[in-house]
Automatic annotation (TrEMBL):
Species name: Vulcanimicrobium alpinum
Cofactor note: Binds 1 potassium ion per subunit.
Residues binding AMP, per UniProt: 407-411, 435
PROSITE patterns per UniProt: YJEF_C_2, YJEF_C_3, YJEF_N
Enzyme Commission number(s): 4.2.1.136
PANTHER family reported for this sequence: ATP-DEPENDENT (S)-NAD(P)H-HYDRATE DEHYDRATASE, ATP-DEPENDENT (S)-NAD(P)H-HYDRATE DEHYDRATASE FAMILY MEMBER
Record key words, sorted: ATP-binding, Isomerase, Lyase, Metal-binding, Multifunctional enzyme, NAD, NADP, Nucleotide-binding, Potassium
Keyword Protease in annotation: no
Protein name, entry field: ADP-dependent (S)-NAD(P)H-hydrate dehydratase
Lineage: Bacteria, Bacillati, Vulcanimicrobiota, Vulcanimicrobiia, Vulcanimicrobiales
GO molecular function, one term: ATP binding
GO biological process, one term: metabolite repair
Residue ranges annotated for the YjeF N-terminal domain, each copy included: 9-209
Length: 507
């Protein structure tokens, strides 16, 4: 699903309003919001809307008008607000439906005890810093301690950049109307988003054509399920996906084991591991179904030949985890990546070695999976501040054409055509070896025929879900092996309601 800038959303809104009428759109938005109210309401208190003078405020009226759950409903708004025709319609319907209307300003005491507060102060046209009236409403909401469902965006966040004001709503959930706003997916605003839902209300990506390209996308559950390859009945072990893992060293054999496990649990039919002789004993002790082939790392030319010979029977390569930073491993990495025609996912040590020869890999079928530190080095442009991740990854991919997966709380995956924001994951993944599992999973997806960008975004999404599944089983102390083991369960996607899509849960 497209994650939009404010400018893209305005274009989409305008076209949808011209087609369907603003009143109908706001009624649809209200109906979708109303469906979420009971999910997030706690206790016996009222549902309280706080409405700004714009259409975001209109959504608060529309939601309370549409809500049929039997709770008391109150809305705070400006009785003298001019507002759009849609906002008037919503306000009128709220009144008829028995919603109690009270004038702004609202103080925290009035909101304390609410079962749920609907934040309709500002939406996609919010600008920071907040004006005094909006800031006062946000301060009251924040001080009340009540649970908040944010309408479109949490007020006080910048809808495109994810910057936050001194006064900001921290929501338990946010419901995006039309399309999710980029800012709600980006730090620091993401902390305020809570769970993220989207009600598409009939809006169309095409209406933003040409505005703020290349587009950003966020994977939703149905799109993820559609990306996962399905094994054909007539498959054999090689056609089911045969990744070659080039990883491990005497010092770090575990990286190769975890990468192989990630590949295997992602559904590969035949996993081959090529590793230096010093890692062989540890690998053979831990890998049973996988084939281990060794090479002499002190003879890089022969090692490259051994590995390239193996590629004849493989369909993708993962290279880098645990290989180390020696000149010999540099020669092996560049010899293999430069000498193969197979798609490659490169991680860890391989990123270090490839950094010196990026020009050779321009637009190659290659995925790199750096964390922020590795990205700083490979991009050649130094440390990446949290708020410049999106711009920096775009700059790098526009320059090199290399599909890049930049790890972080919101992992970014960029190709020349688009930037993808991965919404899944948990801090349980912040533990050694989980990146090796991800690399292995991506290798399998490449081996099963996904394009590099699709393998990267499906892999990131899947791995994030697997982290959450592993945490749900273990509660704490998740290790990388648990994440590999959870890939199967994490591949299951419950049927989705296309009118109300859950993009991520709070975590
Ligand atoms: N237009 C449509 O077709 C739809 C709009 N919807 C809702 O409408 C919202 C957008 O409504 P609006 O366009 O009325 O905009 P907002 O409700 O976001 O903002 C209201 C007004 O406040 C002004 N404002 C924002 N920040 C300010 C600041 N710091 N100081 C002074 N003024 C400031 C804006 O310029 C705008 O005129 C969406 O976020 C969504 O909730 C939905 O109902 C779906 C359909
Ligand atoms: K809002």
């Amino acid at each position: 699903m497209r994650a939009v800038t404010a400018a893209q959303m305005r274009a989409i809104d305008a076209a949808a309003a011209a087609r369907d009428g603003e009143v109908a759109l706001m009624r649809a938005a209200g109906a979708a919001i109303a469906r979420l109210i009971d999910r997030y309401a706690h206790g016996d208190g009222p549902i309280v809307g706080v409405a700004g003078n714009g259409n975001n405020g209109g959504d608060a009226y529309a939601a309370l008008a549409a809500y049929a759950g039997g709770r008391r409903r109150i809305v705070y708004g400006d009785p003298a607000a001019e507002g759009s025709r849609a906002r008037h319609d919503a306000r009128w319907r709220a009144r008829i439906a028995g919603v109690e209307e009270r004038p702004l300003p609202v103080d925290a005491n009035a909101l304390r005890g609410a079962a749920l507060v609907l934040d309709g102060v500002l939406g996609v046209n919010a600008r920071l810093p907040l004006d005094a009236r909006s800031a006062a409403a946000v301060a009251a909401i924040a001080a009340s301690g009540a649970a908040v469902l944010a309408l479109d965006i949490p007020t006080g966040t910048e809808p495109t950049t994810g910057a936050v004001d001194a006064h900001v709503v921290r929501a338990v959930a946010t419901i995006a109307l039309g399309r999710p706003k980029l800012g709600t997916l980006l730090d620091p605003a993401r902390d305020c988003t809570g769970a993220l839902w989207c009600a598409p209300i009939g809006m169309r990506d095409a209406d933003a054509a040409g505005v703020d390209d290349p587009p950003a996308e966020v994977l939703d559950p149905a799109a993820f399920a559609a990306l996962l390859p399905v094994r054909a009945d007539e498959s054999d072990k090689r056609s089911s996906g045969a990744p070659l893992i080039v990883a491990g060293s005497t010092q770090f054999p575990g990286a190769a084991v975890l990468c192989a496990w990630g590949a295997a649990r992602a559904g590969a039919g035949y996993v081959t591991v090529a590793a230096p002789e010093g890692a062989a004993a540890a690998l053979r002790a831990h890998l049973v179904e996988q084939v281990v082939v060794t090479y002499d790392e002190r003879d890089p030319a022969a090692a490259v030949q051994t590995i390239l010979d193996l590629t004849n029977r493989c369909s993708a390569i993962a290279i880098g985890p645990g290989l180390g930073l020696s000149d010999d491993s540099a020669a092996i990495v560049n010899g293999v990546v430069g000498g193969t025609t197979l798609p490659v996912v490169a991680d860890a040590s391989a990123l270090y070695h490839l950094a010196k020869r990026l020009d050779a890999y321009r637009d190659a079928p290659l995925v790199i999976t750096p964390h922020a530190g590795e990205f700083a080095r490979i991009s050649g442009k130094g440390t990446v501040a949290p708020d410049e991740r999106l711009a920096r990854v775009r700059e790098f991919v526009d320059r090199t054409g290399i599909v890049t997966l930049l790890k972080g709380r919101t992992t970014l995956i960029a190709s020349r055509d688009a930037t993808h924001l991965n919404p899944t994951g948990t801090n349980a993944l912040a533990t050694a070896g989980t990146g090796d599992v991800l690399t292995g999973a991506i290798a399998t997806l490449l081996a099963q025929g996904l394009a590099p960008v699709d393998a990267a975004r499906a892999g990131a999404y899947w791995h994030g879900r697997a982290g959450s599944v592993a945490l749900a089983h273990r509660h704490r102390g998740v290790v990388a092996r648990d994440v590999a083991e959870a890939l199967g369960e994490a591949s299951l996607v419950a049927p989705q309601d296309p009118e109300l899509i859950r993009l991520f849960s709070s975590r």
